[in-house]
Amino acid sequence: MTNERIGYISGLDGLRAIAAMIVVLYHLVPGIAEAGYIGVDMFFVISGFLITALLVKEKEARGKISVRSFWVRRIRRLLPAVAVATLGSLALARIFGGDTLTQLRWQAIGSLTGTYNWLQISHASSYFDKQSPLLLSNMWSLAVEQQFYIVWPPIVILLLVCTVVEIRIVCALLLGIGSIVLHALTVGADPTSAYVSTFSHSFGLMFGAALALALPGLLTGSRAGTKAIWGWISWLSLLAIVVLSFILTDSHYMYPWGMVAFSILMVGTIRGLLPDASGFGTRSLRAVLETPPLVWIGHRSYGIYLWHWPLHVIGFYHSPMAAVPTALIVLMLSIALADVSYRYIETPIRTHGFLGWLRTMPPLHKKKAAGIVLAALVTGTAVAGFITEHATSSGQQLIIDAEKQAKEQQSTPAPPPLSEPRDTPENPKRPVLPNVVGENVTVIGDSVTVAATPALQEKLPGIVVNSEVSRSIKQFPTIAAQMAQENQLRPYVVIALGTNGAITEEDAQAILNAVGPDRRIVLVTASAPEYATWVPVSNSTMREMARKNPDRVVIADWQSIALAHPDLLAGDQIHPGTEGSALFANEVFQALHRFQK
């Protein structure tokens, strides 16, 4: 069996469908598939395998590889859908307005030129900012693939000069290993740069390519028993991918090691679908992956991926507290738009080219279709040209304004630390607590606290506020220890760190240990849209902590206030505006006074 038999591989469309569904679930239904972003790595492995297999096949069939023809085919395959999705998303952003307009110019340029990931890095835009998502941030992966399609064919030509198959495979694997090492060395607290960089996230592409380069040896040298076992390995690999994407969490070990493991599992899955694989395992897996619904979704998976994220972002900003209904609407619209794109744009252009696309349309529909396409292009281009983008989202702007205002009304240096609480003669077990004044209060918080800092300073002059964007509870013990050394950890410690990650029972004990027995703690509940699935966990932990330690801990219920006054929050439904900040500060003030009762 030769590489000429590598054409359509039964089951790959089904794998595309599964990858698309995992990614869409991860984005639209938070908490369901916390590691669902590995669907992108599944796509990378498939792309690396297919592109390399086609190039090798062309070399064996024709004796050479036409890089120009390859690039033309890729342009026909990728550009039409990207252009329509990008221009359509820009038009929708203009219609809906608000935070969907944030940083649109560079996003549109990056999307249409295949450079989105590099522009994202150069603009220091975090892919993992769930509070202020950008309209086209899913385009980073398309950019990585497009760049791969540019540089990989010449490399394959060089590799095929070598007649030793094993050397070809090793070269591809070494490129993949180099990408892994670079990812591991460059990943930081925010892994965006390592995650979206072509250099540090191409290992999946290289693993797929290595499998394709190994095809001649695999297809001619396998024994019957080995061929049969690959079907079961493929089944186990696919089941592991699906199950692990639902039970693993988005933890630091995933960058890159978890993604590497998923990429290897994807190679194992594809291996059992190749022509030399046989036996019941392979036949049953092909039968499952070739079911009509999976094939239908697989054909449209590219369009579904392109459309679902911009629609999700629009829904996120304009209906943030109705996550499930919005997700259903976004899913249906994504499938519908992907189907239209696949039927009337992608397939005709891929088959007949851009000009042949219009010539092959039935006469009755040609003018109508041409008019629709022209109107869409003109409208989208006009919107892109005249649109007034926002440099920052409303939530980010509130933080910037609050930081500026807080600096302007910066309080004077803190006075010497007050004496420790003393037992009263009447009740030696009940200490006399210091007065609730700013000089006795320290606040440690995240971006919500940053936004509310001016209001806190006005409500409690002399207060110490230590807040930072994206801060989580895990950083609290270190911050508290440092502030204690600097005599900045005062008798009352307000903690508002529930927005960016779950607060666990272990964290609760760490808080008590870090603050010490002689200080009093105010825990501020968090409020966020449904995508922040950790917020209910954090709030529950805080309430339980207050219940178990009534003399040391009280609750400032910001969540109830925020839910009652959504109009006083930014578009992200997290950060308070001026009036909302005043309510935040007042709730903290009232909670502090409960210690005096």
UniProtKB/TrEMBL annotation:
GO terms for molecular function: acyltransferase activity, transferring groups other than amino-acyl groups. It is a multi-pass membrane protein. CDD domains: SGNH_hydrolase_yrhL_like (cd01840). Gene3D superfamilies: SGNH hydrolase. Its main location: membrane. It holds the Pfam family Acyl_transf_3. Residues 10-340 form the Acyltransferase domain. It is found in: Cell membrane. The chain crosses the membrane at residues 12-29, 35-56, 77-96, 147-165, 172-189, 201-221, 228-248, 322-342, 369-387. Residues 404-434 are annotated as: Disordered. One of its GO terms (biological process) is lipopolysaccharide biosynthetic process. Residues 420-429 have a biased composition (Basic and acidic residues). InterPro entries: Acyl_transf_3_dom, Acyltransferase_3, SGNH_hydro_sf. Keywords: Acyltransferase, Cell membrane, Membrane, Transferase, Transmembrane, Transmembrane helix. The keyword Transferase applies. GO terms for cellular component: plasma membrane. This is Acyltransferase 3.
